[in-house]
Amino acid sequence: MATGIRDKVAIIGMGCSKFGERWNMSGEDLMVEAFVECLGDAGIEKKDIQAAWFGCCRSEISVTTTSMPLSAALGLPNIAVTRVENACATGTEAFRGACYAVASGAYDICLALGMEKLKDTGYGGLPPHGTGTREAMISPTITPPAGFALLASAYRAMHKVSREDLKRALAHVSWKSHENGAKNPKAHLRRPVSIEKILAAPIIADPLGLFDCCGVSDGSACAIVTTPEIARNLGKKDLVSVKALQIAVSNNYEARFNEWQGDHLVTTDKAADQAFKEAGIQNPREEISMMEVHDCFSITELVTMEDLKISPRGGAVKDVMDGFYDLDGGVPCQVDGGLKCFGHPIGASGLRMLYEMYLQLHGRAGERQIKDPKIGLTHNVGGLPIKNVAAISIIGKYNV
Amino acid sequence: MIGIVSSGGYIPRLRLQRSAITKAMGWFAPNLLGAAQGERSMCNWDEDTLTMAVASARDCIVDMDKSEIDAVYLASTTMPFADRDNAGILKTALNLKNNISTADFSTTLKAGTTALISGLESIKGGDRKEILVVAADKRRSKAASIQEMRFGDGAASLLLGRENLIAEFIDSYSVSYDFVDHYRGSSTTYDYNWEERWIRDEGYTKIYIEAILGLLEKASTKINDVAKIIYPCPVKRTHTSIAKSLGAKLEQVADNMHEVTGECGSAHPFVMLAQELENAQPGDKLIVAGFGQGADVLLFQVTDNIKNLNSKQMISKHLACKKAEHSYTKWLLFNELIDTEMGARAEADNRTPLSTLWREHKLILGFVGGICKECNTPQIPSDRVCVNPDCGAVDSQEEYEFSNRPARVLTFTGDNLGASMDPPAIFGMIQFEGGGRMLMDFSDCELDDVEVGVPMELSFRKKYYDKNRGFTGYFWKAIPQMITDNIAE
């Protein structure tokens, strides 16, 4: 009988590059930036790392596919490296691989590193990506904002929310992330923005305006993991351990069966149930101290609050407007600025979210610091609402 | 008895106001000012000869037993493919049976009537029960040309057979002359035209009169026994003077539809016929003629069945479903007459994997999905594992057509980011009545026309054009029913 990942793995070091338009940094350079910080934080040497997981989603446009870019960039001593890709959950997938390797006892110390170099494309937004030969001939050309904007139309219909009320709640979602991002020296976008400016921005994909969309950034983040026992033997105190790692992947249910109404994410809903069970969380609204969720678009964050059972169905608009997810609210969300302002280098994002939770749990988050957090949740959605990968990670103080 | 079982027509919703052409270009081409009356039909950016052909054919065979159709002929001078059976694409879009004969008739404006005569002769020969003959044209023209003013885009279809005829075929007569009033080289885009006065006197007038008189004599019919004479001729004065020379009265002459559609190339005799059939009375004799390096003339007699003409088959439905287009620049963009910056996203290569197209041709061209034999869940696309999570049966799918099923909007958006010929690109999920759903492009509408729950219809459209390889990719799109029912505007 499987017992889950809870408290079997400890994070002993993390690093994160500055996110943004890193015009003069290659993908390899970004990996080094995150890794040097991480290794220093862990207080170990490179040779102590026994295996690595490399997450990069669009690696063919930056460093090429396979595991080799990571090994070469960091100069790893011919250890096992696995390259993983799972859409926007790629970074989390790399972390998951490293955690499972340690938990299985196959290795003592593992590295998970995520990186994305997106700003060599020559235009804003994400480049189109392969959809498979059949899909290319039948699917609309779905840009990410348009794919997620579909949620808004269905959410409005389902919960009888006017376009204006929804727009205002979405504006608050982005406003809050800009406030938080302004406090973060590593964030891509560091300027507070007024609600009025957000509402007046040009429409990208109806009803989402410019400020409803996250930044497209270059960046890298990484973690070094081991078991709590080894961590203790290395002299580590106040351990941060992994409480849950769950991934749920769409089948054809949303896209082709007749039940889903298009207003939420089936996968996040399922992954959340599994993650809370794995972490032993009974009441997420009370027990989760803080979150970094996949706010690729403001509407994604809004419906995620319900899929995570923090807000009741149809209740996210009220919670958002009440400031429940603001830095001083009940469950602060996007504490570091989120994808919205910290930026979204796809393969790095899952690890960047964990980085903020890790800093917060160690009380090292500077002016963003939340008072005495115990449990942090991170969440990614890769793909589009009709077909996606949802990943939820929960980390917290060990033995708490 | 052989003849016409049913007809269907399609005129694109957009109607370019001729005044928009002269408003923009009158300073440059004042010769156009005299011809700036009315409007001409104009394909949306995702419409072409084949999509119009499919639309008219769907109307023509609506509620009919498709298995009776033994051949499909497509006539056009603007086939999307020079070497690929365009009628075969049409046949696949209509999801007709495979043991069928398909043929393209092309390279002359009388291709439509020539295909019609061939179809009737083939039925008369006895081997074939029903033949679908479709004519469609979307002719290119240079900016500020008289052709731009006169041409229209459109299609019409005729189902030929032996039973349940709405019009009986009596006789036909053809003449062939290499009279080159205009031509288009096989490697050129636009027509090259000779002097209009010569075309009028030596062409339309002499050739039409010879052919129509030939038919009347052959069929022992007098011109005054004919209710309507249907023959395209874009010059109004010539159009009526021909009738006078034949001894016909003006009311016998079918309107050339210049003011409402413009001349739809090889489809125009069919388009005019479809229009006239709606007003025809049992017993009416109709002459239908096509002009182009000679002429074809056919004589039909309308039967009692004309009273049962299905409202879905009326071209007037499409004539009424219209949106006045006042933007000449939109016309220029849609017709590749202006080099527009489409953005970096438009640079993505769209090479068509032909092996995938073949494997999926029923889905992509015919919009055919499946229904699970185990749980009766309709699904599109249909793959090996049933999408019902409580079923999941493997290899349980039977063919299930979706193109005529009612559907409603479940989600939608209008995208300003992606490359689009007509931003915002509107798309969303539609849910089919009885089951099945799909994320699809929407067409012929604006964002304000769409809301969750709005009824939608399906339309066969151009999905993409691969400029590097000359390949047009087609798929189905959804259109708000209020647009096709002409409730909007």
Describe this structure in words.
The complex is a heterodimer of chains A (400) and B (489). Chain A has two domains: 10-121 and 218-233, Peroxisomal Thiolase, Chain A, domain 1 (3-Layer(aba) Sandwich); 142-209 and 242-395, Thiolase/Chalcone synthase (Peroxisomal Thiolase, Chain A, domain 1, 3-Layer(aba) Sandwich), CATH 3.40.47. Helix content of chain A is 37%, strand content 18%. By secondary structure, chain A is α/β, with parallel strands linked by helices. In chain A, α1 packs across α2 (68-74), α3 packs across α15 and α6 (163-181) packs across α12 (298-307). The mean pLDDT of chain A is 97. Chain A has helices spanning 27-42, 68-74, 90-103, 133-138, 144-159, 163-181, 195-200, 228-233, 253-256, 266-279, 284-287, 298-307, 316-321, 338-341, 346-361, and strands spanning 10-16, 51-55, 80-84, 110-116, 203-205, 208-209, 219-226, 240-249, 290-292, 375-384, 387-397. Chain B is α+β, with helices and mostly antiparallel strands and 489 residues long. Chain B has two domains: 3-334, Thiolase/Chalcone synthase (Peroxisomal Thiolase, Chain A, domain 1); 344-367 and 402-484, Beta Barrel (OB fold (Dihydrolipoamide Acetyltransferase, E2P)), CATH 2.40.50. A nine-stranded mixed beta sheet of chain B has the order 5-4-6-7-1-8-13-12-11, sandwiched between helices. Chain B has a five-stranded antiparallel beta sheet with strand order 20-19-18-21-22. A three-stranded mixed beta sheet of chain B has the order 3-2-14. The two termini of chain B are 44 Å apart. The mean pLDDT of chain B is 96. Classes of the chains: A alpha/beta (400), B alpha+beta (489).
